[in-house]
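Continuing the batch. This is chain 6 of the set; chains 1 through 5 are on the previous pages. Same settings as before, nothing changed between runs. Recording input and output for traceability.
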Amino acid sequence: MSLIKDYVTSKILSLIKSWKRPNFDFSQLGEEKIIINIIQRIASKHRIKQHYIDIGGFNPILYSNTYKLYQQNWCGVIVEPSTDKTKNWHRIRPRDFVINSAIVTNEYSEEKIKIYFKEKNAANETALPDIDKKNLSYYEAKTIKLSEVLTACEKKFSKPFFLNMDIEGAEEKLVLELKNINYKIPLICVEIFLGKNEDNYSVLNYKNIEAVTFLENHGYYLVSVCGPSLIFCDKEIWMPFSKL
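Output for chain 6:
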């Protein structure tokens, strides 16, 4: 039964893989369209190295901010702790380099970390749950630092042009660790939620978050907000949206 299930799954994924209709959006909240639009405008003036880092890859197609880029001959490093989630990755996106580890901040010193979940292989598995851990299941994953992921990308491909981060927690701390690298990643998409106790859920309140302030003070514009996904672009290459 397992072999039949895997065969059917592979056929379905192959069909989806071949679907390249430009109006089909694989991302969760429209991030993909914004990202590609930004890249196309930048590419009209600048040479782009078509490599990405996708931290919290989850699925090679579903909710992916990088799959459409892959269809356009991009490739890069995928960081995803769950081997179950990436078991079909090599069939669908063979040019990518997959790292089955959980990314952690520099202050974390253990070689493994617990990843908690209510439903196995769900998109919201996290090392930092908001609810009581006693009510959750977990698995242990190897850990890796942001600097190690960047080095892997540089060795395997090149410096990344696009960084996508969605790990259900700790994104803000990881953004602050970008100060430790000696170059700027031109385009960044990171999932950051406003605090649950915010009196005003206006997107303008993102200005009060340390990670956002850090990026804006280090040469980035916050150029788009798609739900909790914030998209930043290097000020030196940003091409403003304009009317015809």
